[in-house]
Design a protein that fits this description.
The protein has about 400 residues and is α+β, with helices and mostly antiparallel strands. Helix content is about 35%, strand content about 25%. It has an 11-stranded mixed beta sheet with strand order 3-6-7-9-16-10-15-14-13-12-11. A 5-stranded antiparallel beta sheet has the order 1-2-4-5-8, with helices on both faces.
């Protein structure tokens, strides 16, 4: 832990381990944010660090920034952010490989860079936890100052909420837009059940979903849903086997270690929903969903299967979760990064934002021009997608 500077009545510290920051103070700041998610909880970030899923050995060196305000002889946490020195761009879902390549071709080092993000988690939400916009802006300046002091190429904030975007724009950071696909429940009245949701879709979409679900049903597959403490160690073990098989199928290495999920089961059991598929008495697939019960939001996370069944992925990752969300009165289901095919299942496009600061003036100018062109293309893409809405009538906006 290092104390970086002392502006006015604030103390700014950089921590190389999130356990050095008080968990209750961190979570209190998070809950004060309008768009809080479970992924910014201290327990979640600590589990990533302590399990070595996001660790220096994996290319994620924690540099969490915390700002404390002096109140007499005590210090109160008024702002904080999960920062990492990154040796690569894996596990981010906002792709800057071309920028890194351009630096390399000009004989410059792009890595390490400074990143403010939740590792492996492309879920929009607050990244700059702060008491107010003034301290949020100080937190952003501290991040930029840290990158400058250490001679880093750049600093990045990923999947920001509106409050963070507002402060980043005002500070002159470059904003980048990407597209995700989210499902939103109907307002007044909400969908009564999954068939009611299907009835809102165009005929060809209903027919396709019916055919896909029938294939899974005819294959003899049945699903069960487990939440919280219902998920046993054996269930987590089976899920993790499925999770690793998904990466193996893509000839890749899983980001998350088994110990991360052990810590989640202990520290945040209420935030997990596990679907398990069985056929002829054998477990053959699992899909893990993150839950935010107070806000009625659900997030598709990971899945895998030990056997191949046609359309099993759609059932495990979309239809079962959507049916559960409707039955339990949830408002939103986020299907994760990318995936235009999700529109046919009722998930609609939404824009997400990241913010970027590059130290090199010429590269910064070039990237700014690229982002202007890319931004116009994203707007056009969203417009094209909106013309292909799967609903008979326009549903409420996300």
């Amino acid at each position: 832990m290092r104390e970086e500077q002392r502006p006015d009545d604030y103390v700014i510290r950089v921590h190389d381990d999130p356990s050095q920051i008080d968990a209750r103070a961190w979570n209190a700041l998070l809950e004060a944010q309008a768009s809080a998610t479970p992924f910014m909880r201290h327990e979640y970030l600590l589990a990533l660090h302590a399990s070595a899923s996001a660790s220096p050995g994996a290319g994620w060196t924690a540099q969490f920034v915390a700002i404390y305000e002096r109140e007499g002889s005590t210090e109160v946490l008024v702002a904080a952010a999960p920062l990492y020195l990154k040796d690569h761009s894996y596990g981010e879902y906002v792709f800057d490989w071309a920028w890194a390549d351009a630096y390399q071709r000009h004989g410059l080092d792009y890595y390490p860079k400074l990143l403010c993000a939740v590792p492996f988690t492309p879920v929009p939400g607050p990244r700059l936890l702060a008491r107010d916009d003034a301290v949020r802006a100080l937190l952003l300046r501290s991040m930029q100052g840290l990158a400058s002091q250490r001679g880093l190429s750049s600093a990045h904030l990923l999947f920001l909420d509106e409050a963070d975007q507002r402060v980043a724009r005002a500070a002159g950071w470059m904003i980048r837009s990407t597209v995700q696909f989210h499902w939103t429940n109907r307002d007044a009245p909400a969908y009564a059940d999954f068939p009611d949701f299907l009835a809102s879709l165009q005929r060809d979409k209903r027919k396709k979903i019916g055919q896909e679900r029938r294939k899974v049903l005819d294959a003899g597959v049945r699903f069960g849903a487990l939440t919280g403490a219902e998920i046993t160690t054996g269930d987590w073990d089976f899920f993790y086997r499925c999770y690793t098989l998904t990466y193996r199928a893509h000839r890749s290495t899983p980001y998350l270690r088994r110990d991360f999920f052990t810590r989640m089961a202990q520290a945040m059991p209420e935030n997990w929903l596990l679907f398990v598929a069985e056929r002829q008495g054998r477990r053959i697939a699992a899909s893990l969903i993150a839950l935010d019960p107070p806000r009625g939001n659900a997030f598709g996370r990971y899945w895998g299967a030990t056997e191949q069944v046609d359309c099993l992925h759609f059932e495990a990752c979309y239809y079962q979760p959507l049916a559960w969300c409707i039955a339990n009165g949830y408002h939103r289901f986020e299907g994760g990064a990318q995936g235009e095919h999700k529109m046919a299942r009722g998930l609609m496009p939404v824009t997400t934002a990241s913010a970027h600061w590059l130290a090199h003036p010429q590269f910064s100018q070039a990237v700014a021009e690229f982002l202007r062109r890319e931004g116009r293309a994203v707007e056009d893409y969203i417009g094209e997608l909106e013309e292909r809405r799967p609903f008979k009538l326009a549903p409420p906006g996300p």
